[in-house]
Each structure stands twice: as C-alpha cells, then as structure tokens.
C-alpha cells in the first residue's frame, strides 16, 4: 500500500455526502466510535468540531510563522546595522551610528514581510498546494463540497469489508462509492 | 419576521430573511460565470479605459520630458504626485480596516463587504505605488531604494522616514495582495466547481491552486487568515503613521508636527470608509446584493465615517492651535496664510468637506438615505484629496526663506495624472467585478449557518 500523502488519495475509499453540517458531524462521531481512523472531511466552510472529532491539531504553521517573524526582525535589523554601522559608517554630527529607534520601523516592516511571504509558502506546502489534480476531484458529487454539501471520505481498511457497517452507520447520508486511482 | 418592518430591526439584520447559503453561492458565482455583462458595466469600463489611456499618455509624456511638465518647482517640489500618493494609499486603508480590524473584532457585518473593500484596496494600492516612483525625476533609478550590493558600496539611508515609507508601501502592497488572494482561494474553488465553460474551469482551476476544502485545508486556512488579519491591522496603521512621518520628519513649517502619524491614520480611515460606501451603495443594487449587503452595512459604514471625521476634525483644530501654543513665528505665518492666504479656499474646502459635511450623518434618516450618503462620501473623498494637497503645497510654498516663496499652479499634466490614476483604479475594479466573486461566499455560508442555528434555539 502506498503511503498517505497529505490529502492525496492513494487508497480506495467511500465518500458520503450530507446536506447539513450537523448530520455530517453525527456520522463522523459514529465512524470514530467504530474505530475508523483514516477519515477526511470536505466542507464548503470550516466546521468547528471536525478537528476535535478527527483528533487533529494545527501545529506547524503557527510555529513557522513565529520563526519567520523572528527571522524577519533579526535579519531586518541586521541589514540596517550592517549598512549603517559596519559597512559604510557616516559620522553626522557625532550621532550614534547604531541609531536603533530609526531602524525600528523598517525592522517591523521586514518582519511583517517575512511573516506574509513565509506564512503563505508554508500554508501552501502544508496544504500541498498548488495541486491542480487530485483523484478525489473525480469522485461523483465532489464539486458539491465547495458549495453546499458536507462530505466524509472513509479510507478502505485493509483486509476488511466495511460495506455493511458503513451502510448501517450512514443511514441519512447518501453513500457514494469511489474507486481511487493512485496519485 | 416581516409583518412590521420595524426600522430598528431592519437596521440590525446583516442578512435579509430568505437568503440561504445556497442562494448566495449561486447568485454570487453566477454574477461571474453566467450573467451577461450588463450595459452599465460596459459603459463604466469604457470610461475607465478612456481615463487609463489618459494616464498612459500622461506618463509617456512625463517619461519623455521629465517632471518639468508638472507645475512643481523649488521650493514646491512635492506637488500632485505626492498628494495623490497619500490620497490613494489612504483610501486603500478602508479595505484593510474592514477586513482585518473588524475580522479581529468578529463583527458580523464585515463578511459581506470585506471582499469588495479588499478588492478596492488592492487597486488603490496599485495607484498609490506608482505615484512616488513617477515623482522621482529620474524614475529609472528607483531601484536605488533597495539595499542591494552595488559597485559604489552605498546604502539607502535607513534612518530617513522616506525610506521607511518605501519599505512600508512595499510590504503593504505584498500584504494586501496576499491577504486578498488567500481569502479568495475557497471562493475560486467554488467558481471552478460551478463553471460550465472550459476556459472558466481552466482559469479558476489554476487560480484556486487545487483547493479541496478538506479539514486540513480549512484548519490551515483559518490559522493563516487569522494571522494575516492580526498582521494587516497594525500594518495599515504603520503605513499611515509612516506617511505622516514623511512630513513630520521634514523641517518644513506646517509639516513638522508630532501629531501627524495619528492624523494620517484618521484621515486614511475616513477616506477609506467613504470610498467603500461609494462602491457599496450603487453596487448592492446593480448586482442585486441587497439581501446580503443590508441597511445595517450602510449604517455601520456611515457611523464609522462620522467617527473618523470627528477624530480628524480634532486633528484639524490641533493643527491650528499648536503653532500659536508653541509661539513659533514662522509657523504662525504659515497657518495664517492657510487660513486666509492664496490657498485659503482649498483650506476651507477641506474643513467643510471633511469636518462639517459628515456631521449630517448624526441624523438617522440622512444616514439611511443612500443618495445623500453617497454625496457625503463623495465630498469626503474629494475633501481628503484637497487635504493632502493643502498639506503638501501649503507648507512648502511659505518656506523659511521669504525670497523663495512660490505659488504652485497645477498644469494640464498634473490633472491628467490625477484623473488617469482614477482610470487605472476603476479599470482594475471593473475587471474584478467581472471576474472574481465580489462577496465572500464561504464567509456568508458560515454566517448564515450560525444565524440559522441561533434562530432555531
């Protein structure tokens, strides 16, 4: 079995579509109780509680952004310090060369720039964007996930036939079978 | 709901009854994907492109002949270009304040207007960014502002407010474009999924970068968007403070004032809210968005305009009071010349348009009367341009050296550059109206869901 890459679907699974976030959450709870672990939810907006139910926490992005801010601030200050103190010192009326208050705005701006650019790149990397094609796009009804339906993707468990179990667990949802192509 | 349309209640609704998540999605995406381009769009776009053509001609002539085609000379070396720059960047603040600041305060009314306001910001910033570059006499050397390794081993003057400003506008351009684009991603995916024509699928498919709306995507999206909002709110204050410092850092009478950073932030916010109103009022009808951009939005924006006008009026009072309080003779001369000299009509126009006219908005019926409100907003936008003009020229034309006193007379090319930049803004904005969802669909879906569950209880 190939490795699970981001949200990329390299395994077969079942896609269940729901009309309301509440029905979707209900089904998700049942699935979790039955021990399904490889699940993913597709929704037209961020639904609270999904992360709790899936047991996922955002970890990397905030740390990366903090690091980017520190890098931008330190680098930005050093750039000015290097230019004004080390590389080309200009004595103007005996004023201190390391005039840090005058460097503070550019330091802030460059920290902001680093956060913006690195934050966006980190976001793209973590989300595996740009990724113009993913096998999940071929699933019938998937385009509804960006409009008004809430989908749960359930990975096929190796060596088990969950068809009956899923039919019982997802009574209100319209279960759709999809055969995934390895990405 | 509905039996007695109590004006109070009507004012509290951020969405009209009957609007559903699906209807918003269908309507807003159909505006882009399905609807035949309306006649008013073609007329507006045609006029805008005409003005843009004027801008191209004005810039072309400028590049051939140099800044001598404008009315500037010593000591008034900063004329329209810098005034325009401050004006445009000030109006840009409206979008950032609405989408970043009011995101942080979790204001419900923000969702429906944020996209429109942010789009406005992006194109205002584009106009603003051009102005300082073209006002450089030798604009082709603008890259000297970058700290790059050069054979002369020189550095830009990092201690100068003018260089802070260069960095600030650079970061603000990057920030507003990224903030706008990140917020667009889920909506571009909706367009991709709803598109029927091939070119639309390809275009929005590329722009959406393959957004799936998975829980992973939403989780990261919410963090990033929150962070960007938390960053853009101080960033927009920083850029206007720095623009204020451009002036305060100079020794020119009338400029050398410690109150300038907040003064410029208030002025920027005032013109920003005004221009958002000028766009919202006609567009909510023209695009049939009255269901999601309600009277509540109009009312909130009008109140914000009134508030910032009061803040700015306080600064106007201080501007006159401080020179007398300090007792510096030449500064008093400059103030007196502003109040009663050559530029007095401009000065009083700024006081009336920015300080007096917005006071009409204390009266609720006037605040809710859209034509009146539109005119008030127009007065403010014009007034804010005049304010920048008075600040830039007013101080410079009464220099410390009496022999170099000078009256700035704008030429045709000054006006052409100003009008042309309006054309650039409008062309960009009309294109955006045609090609991107002008209301944030996913935010409204979330808002409507929240409203529904609240109402069900």
Automatic annotation (TrEMBL), chain A:
Keyword terms: Membrane, Transmembrane, Transmembrane helix
Pfam families: ActD (PF11821)
The protein, known as: Quinol:cytochrome c oxidoreductase membrane protein
Protein's organism: Azospirillum oryzae
UniProt xrefs under PANTHER family: LIPOPROTEIN-RELATED, QUINOL:CYTOCHROME C OXIDOREDUCTASE MEMBRANE PROTEIN
Transmembrane segments: 60-82, 102-123
Domain of life assignment: Bacteria
Automatic annotation (TrEMBL), chain B:
Membrane topology field: Multi-pass membrane protein
Keyword Cell membrane belongs to the record: yes
Pfam families, sorted: NrfD (PF03916)
Subcellular location: Cell membrane
Keyword Electron transport: no
Family matches, as InterPro entries: NrfD-like
The entry's keywords: Cell membrane, Membrane, Transmembrane, Transmembrane helix
Location, primary (coarse class): membrane
GO cellular component: plasma membrane
Membrane-crossing residue ranges in chain numbering: 39-64, 84-104, 116-146, 166-191, 223-243, 263-283, 304-325, 345-363, 372-392, 412-436
PANTHER family: POLYSULPHIDE REDUCTASE NRFD, PTHR43044
Family (UniProt): Belongs to the NrfD family.
Protein name: Prokaryotic molybdopterin-containing oxidoreductase family, membrane subunit
